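The material for today's practical consists of a large collection of protein records. Backbone structure tokens are a discrete shorthand for how the chain folds in space. An example says more than a description, so a record of this kind follows:
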Amino acid sequence: MLVVQLEQKSRESPEFTLHKLWLHISPTLETMRSLHKLIMAIHNEVRRNSRGGVSYPKGHVILDVMVKLYVDWGGTLWERQYLFRDGRIPSFLEPYKDKILLAGKYLNIMKRYGTLEPRATSTPAKPLLSSYQNSNFERNTTHGEVLDVLQTLEGGRYIKEIDDAYIYSNRLLLDLLMKEKQVFGRLRSMKRYFFLDQSDFFNHFLDLAWPELRKPYLEASFSKLQLLLDLALRNPDSPASTDPFREELRVTKSGHSLVSRFESPNITGKSPRDIESDLQRSLVNLTSDANKSAMDMLNLDINIEFPFSLVISPRAVAKYQQIFRHLVKLKGVEKQLTHVWSLSREIQHSRRRREADNVKSTLQIQTQCHRMLQFVQQILYFVSSEVLEPNWGKLEKQLTKANTVDQVLQCHTDFLDSCLHECMIDSSNESRRQVLYMILDVCSRFTSFAERILKRDSRPSEPIDQYQIPQDNRHLATSDRLFLVNLREYIDTLEYRDSASSKRQSLAVRLDYNLWYSAS
């Protein structure tokens, strides 16, 4: 209005000079200058907040900065750096608090990585009430101004600003992970090492390290195992030789074997005496781990650098390690059984035919070895070809369609959880998992007894009393009986306790295709 009035005076009155114009606009100019300072301060604050910053000395912000000096970007601590403050979240921001938190986290990640660019704005900022300029509210009254504020909060531009910041931060981080850093290659590397995909390097490692792996793990040299793994990875004939991440792989030993890990005492609803007895049994199990071989305690670890650690977090690495140890247990038992089978064939051809008792024991060992080897190979095929590979194909398709970082993280988490569940090694399959590891433990003990019997029988000069049953032969019969009992129980768990899974039904049919175990 002031500008219109001054323009009209300048046209109608020849006495309206520049001096009079200055007298009229100088008070308003000071007011506008003060408003400009205020608006620019608010504008700079908004721009700073759109880059993920939190700096409110008076404590009226809705977030608490939990870690100010150091954040473990390679772990999960960055996820807990910012937490909501109870009672400080406005009611109109409650539905959008998660988006605000995630957008700020992702912007801080990009800022830490040094690739945060200023947001490009294609159009100048509009007033908050611009979308309601044609409304019928009374803007000249206090009641009308309150209604304007409520209308703005319920459906105003701040919602779009939150969505834009969320989409912007996701796009930046997603481009960094998928395009610049090629997270697909990192995930394929994890699949090669922990799922034993293209596992010729691991077979080579087993051949090189087998004498060391058979030692008790307290006597085995894990530094030597690390050197042998490096030799296997650097083999020019192996696909792993061209993997840029192979240097980050290292051999470690787990703190417990797979069998004792799942025998932890359950103290829920038990008396103190029962709890004490359970703890004593658990202590016996942990003490028995000292007699376990290095193969039973073998584990792999890998160093995940930022920003790959955002997707492959320590929690995800632990799940990869759980699947890896499951595969290593199967591979180790398979190698032991294969060695016993080869040894029995060599001794059978070199033995004198007149030793009828020795021939009988060799045939018994071969029969048991064949049954156990067929079982282990069926489990290996099920895990690798029917669980891990199909789930990996689903993960690749989902990641190519992911539009946000949250979707990438969720797809990867669901992939690992599905693999653990379908491999029957998660907490929901505890009884089935215990039976499986008991069978594998029986197979492992069988190979020790069988190898001692074969080496003893391969020396014809050693006298054997025909009226005395050797202790190893007695253990051999016991292991066969335990294998049959546990295998029948395992097949029952696949057929009757989980009839909804077609994959597990198919596995049960392959394990007992002629109903021999069911009928025996």
Observations:
- The chain is about 65% helix and 5% strand.
